C-alpha cells in the first residue's frame, strides 16, 4: 500500500469529503487533507489576499471546464483565507441568482452571499449573527478597559456612554461612504438592542443585512431608515459591510462567485449585457482602489468567459481588459493577469491524490484497500486509455471512479484489485458517463502527454 498521510482525518470530515467527491461535488470542509497541485495558482491568489489585507482590493477570474478542479481550487482558497483572519462569502450563480436582474435576481445573489457568510469558527456558513455578536463583545471589551483606567464601573449609564463612544469611532468612517449614514444607524441600533436585550430590534437589523426587506416603508417602520438592499445597490452594501468587518477585527472579506456559465445561458442578450456591465463595474471598482479590504474571485468555464458571442468577451469593455496579451502561451502563463486558466493535473499529482483518498477511505472504514502503488498507476492508466479521455477526462471523473473502486473492494472482501481492474467493466466509456453534461462548445482539456506511470 502507498505511504499514508501521517495526519489522522476525523471520521465526520472523512465521511463528508468522500461522499461529496463520490457525488461529484466539492465539500466545504476537509479539503486540506486531499489537496494536491495548483501551487502556482494558489500562490497567485494568496498574493491577492495579502494585498487585500493591506487595505487594497482584488478581482480574479478562474476558468476551467466542468470537473477540472475549478470549484475545488475556489474552496481550497476559501479555507486558506479563513485561517488568515478573513470572513468569506460564496454563492453559485443560477437562473434565479445573477449579478443584475429586474425580478430580484441580483438581490438573490446578495442573500446567498450573506447566508453563506463564514469565518474560521463557523466555516460552513451562517456566521452573520456571530460576526455581529463578536463585534459587540469587542466594543464592550474596549469600553471596559477604558472604564477601568477612569475608575468607572463596568455597568451603568457612564459605561454605556463609553461603549457608544467606542461604537461611534468604529463607524465614523462609514459616514463618508455611500449609504454610510444609514448603515451606521443600523449598527448603533443593533448595539443598543444587544445592551437592552431587545431581541426584536436585533432581529430587524439582521433581517435588513440579509436583504430580506421588500419595501422601504417596511424598513422605515421597523428601523427608521428609508433604505433597503435591492438589485441595484447590493454591491455597494457589500462594500459597506466589508468596512464594518474590518472595524470588527477581521482582515477583510473575500467573495467567491462560481458558475458564471449561468450568465452565458441567459437567453435575452440585453439581460446578459446588463449582467456583464455589473461585473465590469465591480471589476473597475476594485482595481481602481474604490473598494478596500475586499477580494472577489469568480469561476466559470472557458466558454462562459471567452465566447465572443455570449460570454464575457461579448462585452467589449470586458474582453479588452481580460484577454491575454500576445506573449502568453501554453506552458507560459501570466498568473498575475485577471484570468487564471487551470491546466490539467499532472500524472504525478493524480497519483498523490489517489494515495490520499485511499488513506482517508481506510481510516474511515478501518479496512485497508490493499492497493499498491503499482495498482494506483494501473488504475490511472486505465482511466487515461479509455474512450474520450483525450478531450473529456477531468479529475472529477477520476476521483469518482477511484472512490467507487475503494467502495467495491471494501464491500466485497472476496474481490481483488487485479480482478476489478482487469474485468473491463469497471471503467465505463465517457459517452455513457457524461453524455449531455458538457456543452458541445466547451473546449476540452489537453491529453496528458508522457503518461508513463
Extended strand count: 5
Please describe the biggest sheet, giving its number of strands, its sense, and whether it closes into a barrel. Answer: 5 strands, parallel
> Residue ranges: pLDDT <50 for 5 or more in a row?
1-6, 428-453
CATH architecture of the largest domain: 3-Layer(aba) Sandwich
Supply the helix-strand structural class: alpha/beta
| Strand line-up in the sheet with most strands | 2-3-4-1-5
- N- and C-termini, Cα separation: 16 Å
CATH class category name of the largest domain: Alpha Beta
- Estimate nothing, just give the exact number of structural domains: 3
Specify the helix fraction band: 40-55%
Computed over alpha carbons, the radius of gyration is 25 Å
According to CATH, the fold-level topology of the largest domain is Rossmann fold
Order of helices and strands: HHEHEHHHHHHHEHHEHHEHHHHHH
Mean pLDDT: 83
- Rough shape? globular
Provide a count of the helices: 20
The gist of it:
53% of the residues lie in helices and 6% in strands.
Note down, in words, how this protein is organized.
There is one protein chain. It is built from 20 helices and five strands. With 453 residues, the protein is α/β, with parallel strands linked by helices. The protein has three domains: 1-37 and 346-453, no CATH class; 38-119 and 250-341, Rossmann fold (3-Layer(aba) Sandwich); 129-223, no CATH class. Strands 2-3-4-1-5 form a five-stranded parallel beta sheet, with helices on both faces. It is globular, with a radius of gyration of 25 Å. The two termini are 16 Å apart.
